[in-house]
Amino acid sequence: MLPVNQFVNFIEQNSLFTPAAKILAAVSGGIDSVLMVHLLKAAGYDFGIAHCNFQLRGNEALRDQAFCRDLATALGVPFHTVNFDTEQYAADNRVSIQMAARDLRYQWFETIGQQSGYEVVALAHHQNDTIETILLNLTRGTGIAGLHGILPKNGRLVRPLLFLNRTEIQTIVSAEGLAFVEDSSNASAKYARNKIRLEVVPKLKELNPSLEKTFENNLLHFRDLELLLELKLDELRQALPQIHNDLTYLPITKVKNLNPKRLLLFKLLDEYGFNETTIDDLIASLDKHPGRVFESGTHTLLLDRENIILKQKTATHLSEVIINATDHEANFGVYKLNLLHDDSPLIIKDNPLAVSIDADKLVYPLKMRTWHEGDHFFPLGMKGKKKLSDFFINQKVPLHQKEEIPILVNGNGEIMWVGGYRPDERYKVSDNTKKVTIFELFKLT
């Protein structure tokens, strides 16, 4: 007898879909998906069958496609099918055949759902699929999210057979005399999931014959732990970061007090593309490496003296701009630089974004660039030379800002002006100056 009541109860308990929902059932023709559509029919749900032919198994794939078409006819439900050139898609997108098949089918399910008004896509995963997924995740490396297994509902994807294991499905199908087709590739240990199913799980069942029940109980604990972690992370996202001018500040003192620090910091920064190795390096640097920068594909983390500063990468990267004698302006990052050549020895005062330089000392072409490690200059009004790094510390320049400060460099390699802060003593206007060049910065944003 079909377990219709258990089926409906599982659907309702997990809020998979309503009795009036229109369901697209993904059917391969195998034993699991065949049982799922018979249960959908027996429970009175409104559904259609979708079958993908990935054209990877020749006549066997055509057989499966014909079987699913006949099954839809026998059940009196709509039938949708498609043929994919899976190998070509995999080659074009440089992905594995398995990933190509996954991408193709889910994209198609979404298209059919929108075209025909299906609210959810029903997939025939069962408890053993969850066990295999967890073991596969553990083998490859996973966090808590990888331990919760296959969820009954994930967006528009629902899995109404997760209350059954493989043995129970086989028993029901055999008792009901339901026809299905066998995929010959399921018997091959060539693929990682098949190897786990055929070789690993049987050994584990020798140790624990009730493996499925044990995993079911474990999953409840894992899902509760994941929920607890998300609640804690939501609290931290509200209390820990301080956002100012598109920068996110994480106070180092509060980061040090996180417990467990590694897990919470990783989960906070994971969405910005930072992996566990980077988090380990960051934690190890908290007490000894101010100024260190960590990068992901989309963001940078700067370890400042009191904060970890998170910043999104911009499309343009500051490097250097060449300035010729005939130029009257130049753009550098968020700044525009204007040049004015004047025959009078004019001295600019009280404007840190402008400087007068003795024009006879200029060696073109000039450069405007970011600071480099080891840079030094002779700050106006001070004796001797000073490293830019020390100058920035004395000026209390935030570490994340020093990367954006424009440095004006003469053609002989000497720094003439730290834009916005201090000119060089060697290039100041004096009584012997005959003409000046005035450099003035304007912030564009």
Distance between the termini: 71 Å
Number of helices: 14
Q: Order of strands across the widest beta sheet?
A: 3-2-1-4-6-5
Q: Report the radius of gyration as a whole number of Å.
A: 33 Å
Please state the overall shape, judged from the principal axes of the Cα atoms.
Answer: elongated
Largest sheet entry: 6 strands, mixed
Mean pLDDT: 89
Strand elements, count:
22
Flag low-confidence runs. none
Question: β content, as a range?
Answer: 15-25%
Helix content: 25-40%
Oligomer: single chain
Q: Which structural category do the helix and sheet elements fall into?
A: alpha+beta
Properties at a glance:
6-stranded mixed β-sheet, alpha+beta, elongated, 5-stranded antiparallel β-sheet, 445 residues
Task: Indicate the topology.
Blueprint: H1 4-13, E1 22-26, H2 31-42, E2 46-53, H3 59-75, E3 79-83, H4 86-93, H5 97-116, E4 120-122, H6 127-140, E5 153-154, E6 157-158, H7 166-176, H8 192-207, H9 211-239, E7 242-244, E8 247-251, H10 252-256, H11 261-269, H12 276-285, E9 293-295, E10 299-303, E11 307-312, E12 320-323, E13 329-332, E14 335-342, E15 354-358, E16 366-369, E17 376-377, E18 386-387, H13 388-394, H14 399-402, E19 407-409, E20 415-418, E21 422-423, E22 436-443
Helix pairs in contact: 4-5, 6-8, 11-12
Provide an overview of this structure.
This protein starts with a helix and ends with a strand. It is built from 14 helices and 22 strands. Helix 4 (86-93) crosses helix 5 (97-116), helix 6 (127-140) crosses helix 8 (192-207) and helix 11 (261-269) crosses helix 12. The longest helix is centred in the middle third of the chain and has 29 residues, at 211-239. 39% of the residues lie in helices and 21% in strands. A six-stranded mixed β-sheet has the order 3-2-1-4-6-5, with helices on both faces. It has a five-stranded antiparallel β-sheet with strand order 7-8-11-10-9. Strands 12-16-19-20-21 form a five-stranded antiparallel β-sheet, with no helix packed on it. It has 445 residues and is of the alpha+beta class. The protein has helices spanning 4-13, 31-42, 59-75, 86-93, 97-116, 127-140, 166-176, 192-207, 211-239, 252-256, 261-269, 276-285, 388-394, 399-402; strands at 22-26, 46-53, 79-83, 120-122, 153-154, 157-158, 242-244, 247-251, 293-295, 299-303, 307-312, 320-323, 329-332, 335-342, 354-358, 366-369, 376-377, 386-387, 407-409, 415-418, 422-423, 436-443.
